[in-house]
Amino acid sequence: MYESQAAEYKFDLERVSHELNDAKKKYFVQKRREQKEKERAQEALEPVVNETSLNKPRFTGGGFNMAAIPTKVQTVGYQV
Questions:
Q1: Which residues, at least 6 apart from 60, have a Cβ–Cβ distance to it below 8 Å?
Q2: What pLDDT, on the 0 to 100 scale, is given for residue 42?
Q3: Is residue 70 part of a domain?
Q4: Residue 78 in domain
Q5: What is the DSSP string of 33-70?
Q6: Which domain holds residue 28?
Q7: What sign has the CA pseudo-torsion 24, 27, 29, 35?
Q8: First to last CA, the chain
Q9: What DSSP state is assigned to residue 76?
C-alpha cells in the first residue's frame, strides 16, 4: 500500500513538474514575442524634432545657457 502511494505521488510530481516547465516555456515565448513587438513599434516611431528649435540657443529653466562652457568660476568675497 505504502509503495503504491509513493509511486503514485512520484508520478504526479513528475507530471506536475512537466506541466510547470511547459507553462514556463509558453510564458517566455509569449514574453519574447511581446518584447519584439514592443521593439518593432519603438523603431517605427520616428523622433519628432522641431527644426526651428535646433537653431536657437538652448537654455534651462533657470536661464543658464547650455552651449556656453564656463571658463572659471569666480566667487565674491573669497580669496585664496
A1: 66
A2: 86
A3: no
A4: no
A5: HHHHHHHHHHHHSPP---HHHHHSPPB-TT--BSSSPP
A6: 2-41
A7: negative
A8: 93
A9: T
Q: Residues near 58 by Cβ (< 8 Å), separated by ≥ 6? A: 65, 66, 67
Residue 34 counted as domain residue: yes
Note whether residue 60 is domain-resident: no
Total domains in the fold of the chain: 1
d(CA 62, CA 69): 16
Residue-level length of the chain: 80
The Cα 66–Cα 55 span in angstroms is: 14
Question: What would the pLDDT profile of 19-76 be if each residue is shown by its tens digit?
Answer: 999 999 999 999 999 999 999 998 887 666 656 556 666 655 666 666 666 666 555 6
The answer to whether the predicted template modeling score (pTM) of the entire model surpasses 0.90 is no
CA angle 50, 56, 61 (to 5 degrees): 90
